[in-house]
Amino acid sequence: MKNPANQTDRRRQHLIFIGLFLLLQIIFIWRSFYGFNTADEMYFIGCSERIFRGEKILIDEWNPTQQLCSFLLHPIYCLIRTALGSTEGIVMASRFVYLVYSGVLTLFFYLRFQRRGYAAFGPALLFAIFAPFSICAMSYNSIEFGILPVLLAVLSARMEHSVPEYILCGVLMAVVVLANPFALLMYGSYGLICLGATLRGRKRGVEPEGALQFRNFLWMTLGAGIVLVLFLAFIFQRGTLPEMLANVPHIVGDSEHQEGYLYKTWRYFHLCFKNYKWMFVGLALVYGATWLDKKRYAHSLIYMLLASVCVIPYLIYYGFIFEHITVNYQMLPLAFWCLEAYLVTEKKDRRLFCWWFVPAVLFTMIVQYATNTGIVTLSVAYGMCSCVGLIFVADWVQEEKQRWQHAQQETGNSAAGTERAAGRWKAAAFCVAGVLLVQFAGTFFLRMTYDWGDERTWSLTAQMKRGPLKGVHTTPEMADWYGKVLDELDMLELTKEDEIMVVGVAPWIYLYTDAGCGNYSTWQVHEKSTQLYDYYALHPDKFPDVVYMAHWAEEFLSCELANQFLEKDYRVVYAGTGTVLMSPERADAWEAGRVTGS
Fold first, then answer.
1. Which regions span the lipid bilayer (predicted)?
2. Which neighbouring-strand residues pair with 502?
3. Angle, nearest 10°, between helix axes 415-449 and 300-316?
4. For FRET with 307, which of 98, 194, 268, 291 sits at 20 to 30 Å CA-CA?
5. Residues 245, 437: Cα–Cα separation, whole Å
């Protein structure tokens, strides 16, 4: 029979969470109207726009990062793009899609841990307020760091799953792989573990649990295979196998990501230690003392206080002082503080540790293999560890509370002993509250004020009135520049028959014009890269007749990369906010049109 008091408390818990969740969503909707990210966010949307216009994954687009998961986003993007009728306001629409995605996952994590009481607030709200890179966009980062924790949450549950659930897990794994192809390493390792557990179980006459049975891994593979079939069908609906085989070597040969795996492995540890040096030195001593102490559970408060002393300075520094993508750096220290909570908890949740925390830590190494941004992205990846780690902290606090309650109930216990137990419980609660207050306050502050590629929120006082960023607030200087660039693009009278290449980090220009993307990506052109030559050799139809130099006009015209245009007698036809280079035919037609129009 259900306890009415427990039902009332659980109902109160749900109502409080729903209230906090709705309040955060209202705040985040307001926050979405601020910040002009000229690079990454525009590139993410630009990939989807290229596919919407009929271009081909793994053929027309050569940047390896976003294009695979653009396949996943394509149906949603098509709905939004069709509803809008153009790219006017597409950035705001994309941000709202991210808020829905983040909100759904937040509710999922709360439901996953709801039976643990108010401890469920920790993982759910931490996920809600943290946006990777402070970019509220659907990207490979938001997908892999959102979907992988969902998969780990399902597999770590203390329950047997049905065949359809394992198939769904395979679908989720395929989604992670599309966001980060190196995740295949994790999936392959998991398959070997399942195979080993199944063979060992047969030898001993004992069947392993469902998530370790090889047949269930095969059901997951079926789910992943369904996504693979859909992905290949989408690719070959637009392109051919010879086209893909000709282009893929150039995609995986991307010069931005070419570093050896041994070097990247070494660099993983080097970057972590370099950016959190004294924290790791201190925590190493705390971990060592904890391991050697046979009475570690009795001394747990001391170790947690010491661990807090190690991490709080970094949380404060990266939350309120440091000025470079600080919202990412916030997540790593919390993960290692939570690890200490796990070590000093007597009744550990080993299942969550082995099925969620450890795989998430290993995935941070996989992230290092895939990225060229180092600690900036590694710290984001540790957010997956921090979310579940808060459950370890809640378990430790619960144990401390039980010790205090036991001391109160024990007959014959001295008043001094009860007072010491109460003091220890209060110190434990103060320790946890202090760290979490700094962590959540810093993360929320950065979510509200920090913009990748723009000034702090309080400086964003001008609203852009048209184009893909319609409705977004930025600085008056950026809004003025943005408006002038749009005026110049209007002046060029670009059509669908044109191909334009943008020099400089301005992927949003591709979103504004009707012209095709005369480049291997909407991402920036690198002056020393040979990819552009290779791209035009395979895609002569993409050779641009218009080059718009948003930045670095003089540098571009003097660099070797410009020779392929200058040798074809391309000429500068306009120099203003941007500099415009056109083919002879396009330049003659444009100049004639201007004369006629005047």
1. 15-34, 90-111, 118-143, 163-196, 217-236, 301-321, 352-370, 376-397, 427-446
2. 548
3. 20
4. 268
5. 52
